Amino acid sequence: MRILSRTEIAVTSDGVPQRTGNNLDPWYANYAERAAGFAASEVRALFAVASRPEVVSLAGGMPFVSALPQDLITQAMERVMRDQGPVALQYGSGQGIPALREQILEVMALEGIRGSVDNVVTSTGSQQALDFVAKLFLDPGDVVLAEAPSYVGAMGVFRSYQASVVHVAMDEHGLIPEALRETISYLRGQGRRIKFLYTIPNFHNPAGVTLSAERRPEILEICRSNEILVLEDNPYGLLHFDEPAPNALRSMDPEGVIYLGSFSKTLAPGFRVGWALAPHAIREKLILAAESAILSPSSFSQLAVSEYLSQADWRGQIDTFRGVYRERKDAMIEALGEYLPQLSWTNPNGGFYVWVTMPDVLDSKQMLPRAVRELVAYTPGTAFFADGRGRHAMRLSFCYPTPDAIRLGIRRLATVVNGELDL
Ligand code: PMP
C-alpha cells in the first residue's frame, strides 16, 4: 500500500476525506478508521453564535445550576480538603469510592432499583459510562438499537466504535414493542449482530416522552427472548413534574440491564460524576474497561459529591429543581400554544426537552441561520437521527432560560416559522 503524502489528503467540514493539495490536516492518512466517526456537528458553528447573550438559546441542555445552594457546596468541598485532603488528591479505586457507591444505591432506590455496591462503577459523567459499555461490547459493524430519535451524544459514542445505530419507532408512550420485535427480526434476517438496545425511558432526550409502565415488561421480555442486552440511560428520572416515572427497567431485570445514572442533572454537571450499575456477570469486565481508560475517576469530585449528599438535603434540592423546570416547561408549552399553534409538540412530564414537529414544507436545519438572525436558537431534529431523518422537527430545551426568556424565544421562533411559511 502506498503511503499517502502528508499534503495529499484533507478533511472537509463534514468529516469526509478528500485528496487535496491543501495541507489542512497533515496527519489525515494516519488516523484510525474509527476516527471517521468523529464528525463535528454541522450546527456547532451556529451554536457558538447562539451563546451570545442577546440570543435566547433553546438549544443546549444546560442545567440551571444557579438554583443550587452554592454555599453548601463550597462548604462540602472545604470539608473534603480539610478532613480527607490526602485521599482527595490521590489516585483511587478504578471502580469508584465505596462511600459514594453506597450513596448511589440510595439514589437509585428512589426509582425502585435494588443493587449491590459491588456492581456500581463510577465514571466521569454518564457519558463516560456510555463509552465504557461501548468499548466493552461493540465491534465494527455491530448494531445498536435506539429510539427514533435518540440522544446525540450516545450515538456519537457508538459511531466512534464503528457500530451502526438502527432506530426503533416511538410514540407518546415511548418505544413501541411491536416495532422493536419487527426491527429485530428484520435485522436478524439480514444477518446483522445486535449488541444492545440503548434506551432513555424517562423524559426522553430529545423526544420528551416517557416509556409507559405497561410497555416496560414487554420491552424487557422482547430483549430477553432475543438475548439482547438493555442499556438504560436515566439522567432525568428524578426530575418529574407530576407523577414520578414508572420504576426503572433495571428494577425488573437486574441481569439483563446495564443502568446508567448521573449527578449532572440532579446536582451539577461540573463535578462530572455519573455511574453504571452493571449486571453482576459484566461488572468485572466493565471495571477493567474503566481502569484501562482512566485508572480511576476523580477522587476529589467523588468525595465532594459524597460529602454534599451526606450533609445537604439533596432530596429537597431535587424538589427545588423540579419546581424550577416545571415552571419553565409550562411557560414553553403555553407560548407554543399562543404563538405557534400550527405546529405540534410533546408535553413532557419531566426532564428538559420538548420535541416539536413542523409541517413538511419546513426544514429545521435550513431554517436555523434565519432563527439565529432573529436571536433564537434550537437544535434541528436531524441531530438526533443516525439516518438523516428529523428535518421537520426540532428539540427545544426549557432548562436554562427563564420563563420570560422562553416566551420571548418562542415569539421570535414564530416570526421565523411564519416568515418561512410566508404568512
Ligand atoms: N445521557 C443523556 C440522555 C443525556 O441527555 C446526557 C447529557 N445531556 C448524558 C447521558 C450525559 O450526561 P453526563 O455525562 O453529564 O452524566
Automatic annotation (TrEMBL):
The alphabetical list of record keywords is: Aminotransferase, Pyridoxal phosphate, Transferase
User: Does the record's keyword annotation contain NADP?
Assistant: no
Q: Where is the Aminotransferase class I/classII large domain?
A: 70-394
- Name the cofactor(s): pyridoxal 5'-phosphate
According to its UniProt record, what is one Pfam family this protein matches? Aminotran_1_2
Subunit field text: Homodimer.
* UniProt family annotation: Belongs to the class-I pyridoxal-phosphate-dependent aminotransferase family.
The entry's protein name is: PLP-dependent aminotransferase family protein
